[in-house]
Amino acid sequence: MTIMKHTLNIIGGGMAGSEAAWQAANAGVNVVIHEMRPKVETFAHRTGNLGEMVCSNSFRSDDHEQNAVGLLHWEMRAAGGLIMQMAEKHRLPAGGALAVDRDPFAESVTAALKSHPNITVSYDEITALPDDGHWIIATGPLTSGALAQAIQTETGAEALAFFDAIAPIVYHDSINMDIAWMQSRYDKGETIEEQTAYLNCPMTKAQYEAFIDALLAAEKTAFKEGETAGYFDGCLPIEVMAERGRETLRFGPMKPVGLTNAHDPDNKPYAVVQLRRDNALGTLYNIVGFQTKMKYGAQKDVFKTIPALEDAEFARLGGIHRNTFINSPTLLDDQMRLRSKPNIRFAGQITGVEGYVESAAMGLLAGRMAVAELAGRSLPSVPDTTAMGALVTHITGGAEAKTFQPMNVNFGLFPPVEGTKNGRRNRKTRYKAYTDRAKADWQAWLDQLA
């Protein structure tokens, strides 16, 4: 059986769809990417590019020895992942994180896919679940209403939804650098550029209390009828965090630890607002962790109370958008296929993984699983000791279906390593054991496919 005789259709050209297409096409499969943008627009997207980043420009930690996300980066690179290749090409200084210049990144992803001889991009909206052919649905958090309804009708289960909040972006030249200073937390990074990747705005206790008061009093965007605000804890709007307690933000995105004010080193800030470079030119900075659903006028008023941002000009203000995902442990088999329609696989955020990296990783697996099926063979199970395996195991049965919520990759999803000790004091040794085991098992799994 020749897999080139078959076509793999992928709905959605985000992180998951782009990675799935790349993996399948490189294995010799003809791929059609169905992307509704720019014909059908979404709240969050600005372009019709594939792989567009709509929220943060960060793929988070790149530490592959002590961090589960960094380990996922390593595994994707080992598998020839497109998203990681392009992220490295357009990397920006961000301490220990992997941040990218978002527009050139998406342009490069688009160019790579469009120039691939086995890939065709069709700009059309798919509104129904296909009854035949080979399909991957990777429509992400902004699945169109018609397709979401078709999925809901087929599965007989209500789609779960939460609101993903977008953080604002500030023009660098409007920031008061007589107050702010450049430093990565704990001076992380191997170069001076990495160690000074974040812009920090210090607050006294009085300034922090005034900020919290303004935040709580600000006018918020109302939810539409029939929508519910079930937030994912990893992406809570700052006002929701503040409502949980006045000190919550000071122990979250505004924590002052690991930072020394270069303008006043003898006085420790009570709280710190961090901004991260958002483009290669360094003209744009996003306010880290400041997702919000405040109205635009209120955002400007509140954010300008932050020291160094009193004259800030905003390239983009925050907003909210709906994120829809399926109850994967109930609906998908261990090959990520819809049980009621096994010709359809799901990948990316719609499966209940959270984050760019996790979405791309599930696209990578879905693409490889589809290739194996088209070739008439079964793909060996991905070891649950790997970051990839831990994630796919979680969404296809490891999670509790009744309480299923979006999940980032984390070491809590991994089976324990025998002989390691629990507790914060032993964390560094334990995490290194997790990542060493994962790398060996992932490489062995890839070698089986060679």
Q: Which architecture name of the largest domain does CATH use?
A: 3-Layer(bba) Sandwich
Number of strands: 17
Q: What is the string of SSEs from the N terminus onward?
A: EHEEHHEEHEEHEEEHEHHEEHEEHEEHHH
**Cα end-to-end separation:** 18 Å
CATH C-level label of the largest domain: Alpha Beta
C-alpha geometry: globular
Weakly predicted, low-confidence segments? none
What is the name of the CATH superfamily of the largest domain? FAD/NAD(P)-binding domain
Number of H/I helices: 13
Average pLDDT over all residues: 90
Largest sheet descriptor? 6 strands, mixed
How many individual domains? 2
**Broad structural category:** alpha+beta
Output the CATH topology of the largest domain.
FAD/NAD(P)-binding domain
Keywords:
globular; FAD/NAD(P)-binding domain; alpha+beta; six-stranded antiparallel β-sheet; FAD/NAD-bd_sf; six-stranded mixed β-sheet; single chain; 13 helices; cytoplasm; MnmG-rel_CS; 17 strands; 450 residues; Elongation Factor Tu (Ef-tu), domain 3
